[in-house]
Design brief:
723 residues, mainly beta, Maltoporin, Chain A, 24-stranded antiparallel β-sheet, five-stranded mixed β-sheet, 6 helices, globular
Amino acid sequence: MKTIFTTFALIGLTMGISAQETQQDSLEGKKITLDEVFVSGVRVTKESPVTFSNLTKEDVKSRNLGQDIPILMNFLPSVVTTSDAGAGIGYTSLRVRGSDATRVNVTINGIPYNDPESHGTFWVNMPDFSSSTESLQLQRGVGTSTNGAGAFGASLNVLTDGYAEEAFGQISSSIGSFNTLKNSVKFSTGLLNDHIEIAGRLSRITSDGYIDRASSELDSYFLQGAYKSDNTLVKALLFGGHEITYQAWYGIDAATLETDRTFNPSGIHTDENGNTRFYEKEEDNYKQNHAQLLWNQKLNNDWSTNLAFHYTKGRGYFEQFKEEEDFSTYGFQPFTVDGEEINTTDLIRRRWLDNDFYGAVFSTKYSNEELDFILGGAWNKYEGGHFGEVIWAEYAPGSRIRNRYYDNDSEKTDFNIYAKANYKLDENWSLFGDLQYRAVGYQANGEDTGLVDDTFNFFNPKAGITFDLNQNNNFYFSYAQANREPNKNDYENGSPKPEKLNDFELGWRYVSPSVKVNTNVYYMGYKDQLVLTGELNDVGAPLRSNVGDSYRLGLEIDANVSLGNKFAIGPNIAISSNKNRDIVFQRDGVLQELGNTNIAFSPGIIVGNRFDYLPNEKLQLSLLSKYVGEQYMGNIDSDGSKLESYSQTDLNVQYLIETNSFIKSIALSLLVNNILDKEYVSNGYFYTYDDTWSVPNSTTTIEGAGYYPQAGINMLLGATLSF
């Protein structure tokens, strides 16, 4: 209880998520514009019994200075974010209700973005994508029907820029700590002849990162052609990015955390003179390009259709220096020198991905005053090539440059069809129903996964009810079931089972001119949940395993209060209990019944807060704060796996200069992250292994942990010129 009282005190003292960042749509709903029909199949309004938050371009523009979308979402309810490089640029990720990125279903204009094999979301492949994002909606829990892998913690639906009525140009630049530099150029022709618009963006972001050598070189583009008439909207989109990041996925141990927080072991090796060196190109180098064709047609006042085709091409590698690698791993033959057999070598390798993802998404919508009905679905196919090359070896007789030491293929098809409806019984009551059938086929081969040939058929029903007591109060209750297939890494541990989730949501929304509140209670019961074990594989990806029965039970509250014309305060808090049932663990060679244990990476309390002060129309000052309670990095409640609680406070200032010249306005922004200079760790890993060598005829369980420290006080300063 002391922790809870302290947290509420923190809300009152540090203040919170802004009037702008509080999700007004969550409470009041809003009219769907023509652009937004592309996500109408996967988004919801207050008339749906779904727990969600909305975030718009306006909400984050003062903080959009180069950091990734997960970092910009940091202050939403139940969200925890982290950054490998420690400063929000490069590899970043988020967790929602303790569920990691592989369990957060992401769509862009209704089209799946998660990697079909790993289920992960790699925002580093689309740097500065927030500058081409009109809005996003985060649905917590199962949410409504989505395309792509099923949501097991949340759904994130991203809508790209809408068409612009008037022509404009925009130049944005920012500089900051760790030699961070961002430059972007954006334009739109406006509607030519009232029908056609062409718009685009080019961006480049570079940063050294907080962690040693955790540098990033990020380039991206976004190009849009749109045709609009009274009943038709067609968009053709091309967007993508090229990232080169120095690897920082290994973390550091507790001793190093105390003495050298920024140390990065990646690329470490010993040269011929016995000196410690770091390989200068221990880096990730990947390109990803997307093409989308979106067509919405309004047939009459009641009927409309939505059709989309998409294609994504990804290709790239990560490069590593490896010491004393065994010849047998790479197909090299041992040889003898002066009577001594040579069977190991130093080498440089590249591990490649070469993948294609394509498909179609469709929906038909019927809407009148009483009924909203959508019939939709998608067919998608993924073809992935995985291969490794040795580009240099000290000893490698019989090898060739670019020698491939493995060459694997994978294929995945994903088909779903759904029907969902929201029926208004009267002025107060609404019923919601959603039925989805999903069929998945996955084939793969590889030394780590073995031969995989699995098919899955899932039926995912959802139902709920909404009650509008009056124009201020709205209540909802829903039940949703989700079923989900394992990802590629799960097959490394044997034969994983698909997982099942039953999600119950009970909520209350209140809105008045000066106060807005969202409150909900949830229970998420899992069967065979694939929980994070805390361990990483050899490429830094988290490993998971089935745990039988588990659950998440929580309370979430977020609010926004206007304090006159100049002040706004908006706290949020999430309190939860996240448990594995009846865990058994073998310690020191003996099976132990641990009973119920905490699910890995699931803090029991998360608090966000923002205080806005607007002394006039041109100046805005915001104080943002975050508190994340302690969490375990494994599932056995070991003290060695505990990640301590932490807090973070950011200061954000924006000043707008309006001119009457060619330059219409200049927006100046300052973001001071972690202004209190707290030393904190937002992520880590935990592992155990059995030592049978140290003491004869005995087994000792050894534990280990790694940590990803985040930057102390750092800043970004930016300017945006609008024409």
